[in-house]
């Protein structure tokens, strides 16, 4: 299924009690307002990596601005998150204070009272800012800022890879029906042949959205048999995450 460029928008927010026993990246997410598009397009957010070169940022230099209402520590956390991409990939983020070069889109880190999120992938029209909205809680976590940056570069969640059924088993009986769409596997995208990554910052925790947080909603498969292990983390991108970006942007 094809979707218009620039229609996908993933939002993280602090909204109500956490649904998992331990904090994973999904504890920041608000799925009632996750994507600002029609429902039939919302399913596309679960894909792992965009195939279309038109939805990748052109070139390897991306300009970014930081809102003037960030605290000094929040500014430092954004800069720390962005510098990791400069160190680990050929995608180079350069901070600007004024306008970017004519005809160039740029990333704009904005302050939000509750939302944390960004559009997935590059949208060539219109020129101007590609907004990343972050609330105070998300701004304390460089890993969450990196998660959002991976989204804007074109990555989705790891457990929705087209090959995920070879590596994880979803326990739907322990997931409220309204959250089932967050666990869909999508077959129309690429993994860049990067091995499945249980440690990805884009992977949900083992208890994500659990009815009973003492039981997993995602089990890893070892030799085809389900086992319980930790999944995902909020420390920062894994080597698999970096590898996908390097391949996507031809580093």
UniProtKB/TrEMBL annotation:
EC number(s) on file: 3.4.24.-
Domain of life: Eukaryota
Keywords: Disulfide bond, Hydrolase, Metal-binding, Metalloprotease, Protease, Signal, Zinc
Listed cofactors: Zn(2+)
Chain sites annotated for binding Zn(2+): 147, 151, 157
Pfam families in the record: Astacin (PF01400)
Cofactor: how and how many bound: Binds 1 zinc ion per subunit.
Transmembrane segments: none
SS bond partners: 116-138
Domain Peptidase M12A: 48-251
Leader sequence segment: 1-22
Keyword ATP-binding appears in the UniProt entry: no
Enzyme type, top EC level: hydrolase
Entry-linked PROSITE patterns: ASTACIN (PS51864)
GO molecular function per UniProt: metalloendopeptidase activity; zinc ion binding
Protein name, per record: Metalloendopeptidase
Species annotation: Drosophila persimilis
Upper lineage: Eukaryota, Metazoa, Ecdysozoa, Arthropoda, Hexapoda
Underlying gene: Dper\GL21694
């Amino acid at each position: 299924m094809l979707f218009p460029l620039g229609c996908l928008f993933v939002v993280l927010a602090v909204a109500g009690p956490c649904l998992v026993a331990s904090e994973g990246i999904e504890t920041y997410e608000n799925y009632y307002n996750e994507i600002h598009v029609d429902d039939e397009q919302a399913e596309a957010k679960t894909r792992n990596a965009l195939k279309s070169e038109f939805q990748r940022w052109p070139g390897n230099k991306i300009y970014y601005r930081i809102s003037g209402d960030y605290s000094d520590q929040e500014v430092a956390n954004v800069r720390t998150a962005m510098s990791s991409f400069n160190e680990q990939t050929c995608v180079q983020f350069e901070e600007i204070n004024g306008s970017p070069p004519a005809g160039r889109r740029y990333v704009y880190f904005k302050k939000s009272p509750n939302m944390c999120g960004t559009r997935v992938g590059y949208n060539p029209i219109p020129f101007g800012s590609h907004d990343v909205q972050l609330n105070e809680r998300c701004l304390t976590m460089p890993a969450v800022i990196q998660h959002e940056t991976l989204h804007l570069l074109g990555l989705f969640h790891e457990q929705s890879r087209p090959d995920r059924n070879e590596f994880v088993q979803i326990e739907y009986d322990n997931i409220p029906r309204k959250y089932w769409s967050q666990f869909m596997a999508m077959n129309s995208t690429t993994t860049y042949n990067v091995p499945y990554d249980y440690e990805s910052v884009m992977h949900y925790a083992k208890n994500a959205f659990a009815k009973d947080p003492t039981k997993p909603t995602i089990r890893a498969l070892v030799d085809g048999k389900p086992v319980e292990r930790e999944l995902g983390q909020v420390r920062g991108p894994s080597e698999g995450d970096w590898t996908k970006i390097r391949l996507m942007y031809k580093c």
